[in-house]
Amino acid sequence: MLSERRLEVLRAIVQDYVGTEEPVGSKALTERHKLGVSPATVRNDMAVLEEEGFIAQPHTSAGRIPTDKGYRLFVDKLAGVKPLSSPERRAIQNFLDGAVDLDDVVGRTVRLLAQLTRQVAVVQYPSLTRSTVRHVELLSLAPARLMLVLITDTGRVEQRMIDCPAPFAETSLADLRARLNSRVVGRRFADVPQLVQDLPESFDAEDRGTVSTVLSTLLETLVEETEERLVIGGTANLTRFGHDFPLTIRPVLEALEEHVVLLKLLGEAKESGGMGMTVRIGHENAHEGLNSTSVVAVGYGSGDEAVAKLGVVGPTRMDYPGTMGAVRAVARYVGQILAES
């Protein structure tokens, strides 16, 4: 275990390196931070930190920079989440409050996160599997043609056309709409099949075929959205960090283009439970192209259950407290908007 003083030295090295982009020397540390010890003691502490793998010396410099292991200790033990200022919080709220629908909410969230953190923002659409039914609408388009509209608690809207086996009267349609909603509204998608399975039997024989067709379309709608959707923004921000990527930025850009990779990253974040924040640093990211980046992700949703994830990808030399604060604040506002929409 590192002593408190050495932890303080590590914290100072991380803060200075993130702030200045320059490797940090013992002289600069003692001048900039009230460490209460001599430069010789700081040099000794830095030697121990280097021996234990928390900092390293870039070959062209006398100073030291944090390693992935050093950043990990910083995030786990030393970094608080930096709260946003009141103007920043108001700006987030005003920007997101103007959204007109779910696509707009997701699009605005990506732009906002990229601007706040100056990194690459990634936002996952709310997952249907973790959603509940807000309303099912059935509209008659022709005597034997209907439109099914499914609205979820996260503001997602799915529409399907249905060709009925026989004409379906308006009174029967109103009856089906009422009975369907009384059973499924507020219920999780996973529970819907059981809740509606006996519904056709409660209708007259000539209507049962159409009721069964409507139900099978509804159930298909609930399960067919297996491919999760993502939106990415701010990729151009990476060009500001060219020297943070050892060889080239290309592997990072290629990894970001593969949505499967990003979903896996967010999925790994998800394993840490509900709304919890995950920070994966450098080589902790399984995808080789992202070994020089860190990912900060958190769940968002209404209530205390996450319906999806959002986060940022940037170089390992990032302002972790500020980034974590921004990601958490944005997730909280998006959750509020979903709850109110």
The count of helical stretches stands at 12
Shape: elongated
Q: What percentage of residues falls in helices of 4 or more residues? A: 40-55%
- Record the strand order, biggest sheet: 7-3-10-9-8
Strand content: 15-25%
Mean of pLDDT: 86
Poorly predicted ranges: none
Structural class: alpha+beta
Task: Tell me the number of strands.
Answer: 10
The arrangement of helices and strands along the chain is HHHEEHHHEEEEHHHEHHEEEH
Radius of gyration: 26 Å
Task: Explain the layout of strands and helices.
Blueprint: H1 4-20, H2 26-32, H3 39-51, E1 55-56, E2 65-66, H4 68-78, H5 86-97, H6 102-117, E3 120-124, E4 133-142, E5 145-152, E6 157-163, H7 170-184, H8 192-196, H9 205-223, E7 230-233, H10 250-257, H11 259-270, E8 278-281, E9 293-300, E10 308-315, H12 320-340
Antiparallel strand pairs: 1-2, 3-7, 3-10, 4-5, 5-6, 8-9, 9-10
Helix pairs in contact: 1-3, 1-4, 2-3, 5-12, 6-12
Question: Would you write up a description of this structure?
Answer:
With 341 residues, this protein is an alpha+beta fold. It is built from twelve helices and ten strands. The chain has helices at 4-20, 26-32, 39-51, 68-78, 86-97, 102-117, 170-184, 192-196, 205-223, 250-257, 259-270, 320-340, and strands spanning 55-56, 65-66, 120-124, 133-142, 145-152, 157-163, 230-233, 278-281, 293-300, 308-315. The strands form three sheets. It has a five-stranded antiparallel sheet, with helices on both faces. Strand 5 and strand 6 (157-163) form a beta hairpin. The model has no long low-confidence stretch (mean pLDDT 86).
